[in-house]
Specification:
heterodimer; A: about 475 residues; mainly alpha; 20 helices; about 0% strand; disordered C terminus; B: about 525 residues
């Protein structure tokens, strides 16, 4: 380990270190206070800062080829840190009212974030696996944070049992990839595939690799809640604390997608257009994307609880992101990065608004609780409208540009049919996003709100009007 | 910053500033002032515009998203057709605000902000020369209109608003796929993904015929929904009936023109061969729409619905004119867009005024009003006759030219379109005159109607400018038609393969219009 390794891993070290400090502080300090929250925000902010500094440092691989320090990994590190900050800010009042230990929550949040950073930076399948496990275990505990609530316990147990199972799939997949290539290192696999020749053709012709790839897809598809591995999501999102649901469905999803991109677009299929033998992989990914988009949006239509609706719509958004992966080109990778960032802003703020209204009206989680919101809380209703229109992909909001890039990647990869499926599912989706607006504004009901969501709504609009802010950086990252 | 950008920014800035105005009356005065400024700027724009030059003028171009492989730009400009529509937009906005001054009481600042947002979106649509930018403005319009119908609308407003939104979104998302696809085709040929209209126009002729066909239909369906062309018109009666008066006026007056504008600009402009080969299909739908709309209008008892169906008929004439691809047809389509905006906008606005007094849309509740409200009857008669297409008023010019275009069209190969559509003119006279008779003439059937007040000075002030333009276009159409003449002639020539003529000897056959 040398200095450049340390610099490369600095964001990770800061995140995990802050988590440990909070854990220690929590053990000795008995009076509840907000200090852990401030520490979390400072730590994540520092991690984001150093990740931003790291972009452009000419040492793409650290720790002897185990850890990436590329623009791509740092881009995602920034996304995770921002998600952590937003969640911590939103959690403050929410946790206080629900009487949850703040220290415990913050430490788990930071451990989850460090797991995500490992997933986005892993240059070795085992590092990705380690990150996946670190993140998942933190999530299992976080979703059961309301110890006295039955739904929360159920969510944690359900997530844990199914998650453990999915992890097994992922591990088997790694084993079979190792069997095919003789290595778990992504850089080595990348170089082997780039070199080409009979050996690669042979590997890609063998059922062992295909099986390994399918198992990896299953493991990751579970984490992103893509159809048909989404069944846990509605129950868990509904039962878990609302801010945690927001965090899991955005940062967790982004982390799994960063691993998707690393494994598929960087290591296994680095050439554009894809080499022979990858058609099956593309078809599997495309089918997953199509089914997730359609299923998620169609089922979301019939939900009456807002968290379940957002859960099913998150399956659909996983489908949009998979569309970028299935494109198997650099445009797809860029699209995934952009959409993950945009989706983070939208979904965290959506769950933030839900959590805000939840405590005020007691339960407040039914769609009907949003009737006439525009009268009661005009700003909350306005921000929710921006978020819903952005989720539906209506310009000039950022969600539209995210979708635009993903569709463009798919069409340029010759997957026009998949883009059309995406379009059709977007039309379906617009109905239930609009329904929220209908309830808030068009139905009569029988202060300045949270500044965080205000900022996120502003960001959604600004990124929509100036997509260059994201696309320029993304273009730089993926060069 | 050029004048066009300023024009688009004025209503946007106004909408933003309305956040700080809480008082209803102040909000209305402020909005009227903003729309008057916008109208003045559009007049300035018109004086800078030179109708003798073809192509786009007053263009402005700023790079928006630019990487090595993608180039999207803020590219705006006007040609004759868009100049006319820009003027129509800013003009109708002022008129609609004055005409519906007291019709709403709920959350006025919100309504005014949405109207200004709508105006900015419409101006953007007519000026965008980058397809991506066009798409953004196109979708931007959905949001304010959705809220205007949904919040200020009638009883079934939610149904109508959601139907309007999803119908339009469904069409436009396919257009989005087509825009991306077209951009990628450009990337194949030139190496840069671009959605610049002029750049795409240069390469689109090289596209294979089947690709052109797919793209043509993706655009055409999206525009046909907006027009609306039969059988995609079913959102229109609901939206019109449920929308508040000011929404109906803008919807009929300007929003529908976005569809026909798109057909001319993008379908004919980008895919000439595909347009020629599909012209007869779209014309058949247009003719069906003309007859169908007229027949359905005839049996309506709801006056707003009747006017809405008459829109289907009138827009059918415009589409027929467009796909005749002759100079007369295209010029007729453009002037008919303006005419329909004036006459149907006026009909909706006047009925809105009556609705404020009587609060019913059922025609049987009226009758004999000419005796009680003579001023109203006169103005309503003018609007109605303009809609019927009485010679001397504006509607005649447009319908005559579109029919003549369809008659001579070398693309449609048949005069049967023109013959059947002519029946639409007769039917229009039938349902509109009959409506007028039941609405205004005869004995007063309901005693309580005797207390209905005649037009106020404010209402007359809103209606007089509309009448002036109706008569002006009816008598001196060349004053307006020369604005778009150059562009439409060039388009027709390029479509039909005619050599451009040297002199500007475009004569209209009808003697009453032979004024130069």
């Amino acid at each position: 380990m040398n200095q450049s390794d340390l610099i490369a891993a600095l964001p990770l070290i800061i995140l995990a270190g802050t988590g440990l400090i909070i854990l220690l502080w929590d053990a000795f300090e008995k009076t509840p206070s907000r200090i852990p929250l401030y520490l979390t925000i400072i730590g994540s902010g520092a991690a984001a800062y150093f990740a931003a500094v790291n972009i452009g440092v000419p040492s793409p691989v650290a720790f002897g080829g185990l850890f990436f320090n590329t623009g791509y990994s740092n881009f995602f590190t920034i996304i995770f840190s921002v998600a952590t900050i937003l969640t911590a800010l939103l959690a403050e009042r929410y946790l206080h009212e629900e009487e949850v230990l703040i220290g415990e929550f913050c430490a788990l949040l930071l451990f989850a974030a460090s797991g995500m950073v490992m997933m986005a930076s892993g240059a070795d399948l085992l590092v990705i696996f380690l990150g996946l496990e670190t993140m998942s275990i933190a999530f299992y505990v976080l979703s059961g944070l309301f110890r006295k609530k039955l739904e929360s316990n159920e969510a944690a147990l359900k997530y844990f049992l199914l998650g453990a199972f999915a992890t097994g799939f992922f591990l088997y997949g790694i084993a079979l990839i190792y069997g095919s290539f003789g290595t778990m290192n992504l850089v080595t696999i990348h170089n082997t595939v780039i070199a080409g020749g009979d050996k690669v053709a042979q590997i890609f012709g063998s059922p062992m690799l295909l099986l390994g790839v399918v198992l990896l897809i299953v493991g990751l598809a579970f984490k992103v809640a893509a159809f048909p591995f989404h069944q846990w999501a509605p129950d868990v999102y509904e039962g878990a604390p609302t801010v945690v649901s927001g965090y899991m469905s955005t940062a967790g999803k982004a982390a799994a997608f960063s691993a998707f991109v690393l494994i598929f677009l960087y290591a296994l299929i680095p050439i554009n257009p894809p080499h022979v033998g990858t058609e099956k992989i593309q078809i599997i990914l495309a089918a997953l994307a199509a089914c997730s988009m359609l299923y998620g949006n169609i089922v979301a239509l019939s939900q009456t609880k807002i968290k379940r609706m957002l859960a099913y719509s998150s399956t659909a958004h996983a489908g949009y992101l998979l569309l970028g992966v299935a494109a198997l080109n650099t445009a797809g990778a860029a699209g995934v990065g952009i959409y993950a960032a945009v989706y983070l802003l939208m979904q965290v703020s959506a769950f933030g608004i839900v959590s805000m209204l939840e405590k005020e009206t007691g339960t407040g989680l039914e769609l009907n609780d949003y009737v006439g919101l525009a009268k009661r809380r005009p700003w909350a209703a306005f921000m929710m409208s921006v978020i819903m229109l952005s989720l539906a992909g209506i310009p000039p909001f950022a969600g539209f540009f995210g979708k635009y890039y993903l569709f463009m990647a798919a069409i340029s990869a010759g997957l026009t049919w998949l883009a059309i499926v995406g379009v059709i599912s977007s039309i379906i989706a617009s109905y239930f996003y609009l329904r929220i607006i209908v309830l808030m504004y068009f139905r009569e009901p029988q202060h300045t709100d949270n500044i965080v969501i205000g900022l996120a709504s502003v960001a959604i609009t600004i990124l929509g009007l100036m997509p260059g802010l994201l696309t320029d950086t993304a273009g730089y990252f993926f060069k | 910053m050029g004048l066009l950008t300023i024009l688009i920014l004025i209503p946007l800035a106004g909408a933003a500033l309305l956040h700080f105005i809480k008082d209803a009356k102040a909000a209305k005065i402020f909005t009227l002032a903003v729309s008057l400024v916008a109208f003045t700027v559009s007049l300035l724009l018109y004086f800078r515009f030179d109708a003798n030059i073809g192509g786009f003028q007053l263009t402005e171009k700023l790079s928006w998203v630019s990487t090595q492989t993608i180039s999207l730009s803020y590219f705006i400009g006007v040609d004759g057709m868009s100049m006319l529509l820009v003027l129509l937009t800013t003009f109708l906005m002022v008129i609609a605000l004055i005409g519906t001054w007291n019709s709403q009481s709920k959350n006025i600042p919100g309504l005014m902000a949405l109207l200004l947002l709508l105006e900015a979106g419409m101006l953007g649509v007519f000026c965008s020369l980058d397809l991506f930018l066009f798409y953004i403005f196109w979708e931007l319009i959905l949001i304010p209109m959705y809220f205007i119908i949904g919040i200020w609308g009638g009883e079934r407003r939610v149904y109508a608003a959601v139907k309007f939104f999803i119908y339009t979104l469904a069409g436009s998302l396919f257009m989005l796929v087509a825009i991306i696809w077209l951009g990628l085709q450009a990337a194949k040929l030139t190496g840069i993904f671009t959605t610049d209209f002029t750049a795409l126009q240069a390469i689109s002729a090289q596209l294979p015929m089947d690709v052109q066909n797919y793209l043509f239909w993706a655009f055409a369906v999206s525009f046909a929904i907006k027009v609306p062309l039969f059988p995609l018109h079913t959102w229109l009666p609901d939206a019109h009936v449920e929308a508040p008066t000011v929404g109906s006026v803008i919807l009929a007056g300007v929003l529908l023109k976005m569809g026909t504008y798109g057909l001319i600009r993008f379908n004919l402009g980008l895919f000439p061969q595909a347009s020629i080969s599909n012209a007869s299909i779209l014309s058949i739908f247009a003719v069906i729409g003309i007859i169908y709309g007229a027949l359905v209008a005839m049996v309506q008892t709801d006056i707003k619905k009747l006017i809405a169906y008459s829109s289907v008929t009138h827009m059918g004439f415009i589409v027929l004119g467009i796909f005749s691809m002759t100079r007369e047809g295209l010029q007729g389509a453009v002037i008919q867009m303006v005419n329909h905006g004036l006459s149907t906008g006026m009909l909706f606005m006047m009925f809105g005024m009556m609705y404020e007094r009587k609060h019913t849309r059922d025609i049987a509740q009226y009758g004999g009003l000419a005796k009680i409200t003579p001023h109203f009857a006169v103005f309503f008669a003018i609007a109605m006759l303009s809609s019927v297409g009485l010679p001397g008023l504006n509607g005649f010019v447009g319908e005559y030219l579109t029919l003549m275009g369809a008659f001579q069209s070398p693309v449609l190969h048949s005069w049967i379109y023109a013959i059947i559509s002519s029946a639409g003119v007769i039917l229009a006279a039938v349902y509109l005159l009959w409506m007028y008779q039941r609405f205004m003439m005869g004995p007063v059937t309901h005693e309580e109607n005797r207390h209905i007040k005649d037009l106020s000075k404010r209402e007359i002030a809103a209606l007089v400018p509309l009448v002036i333009f109706m008569v002006w276009i009816g008598i001196q159409p060349m004053n307006f038609m020369k604005i778009s003449e150059k562009g439409m002639n060039a388009l027709s020539n390029s479509l039909l393969g005619v050599q451009p003529e040297k002199s500007n000897e475009y004569q209209i056959v009808n003697p009453s219009m032979k004024i130069k």
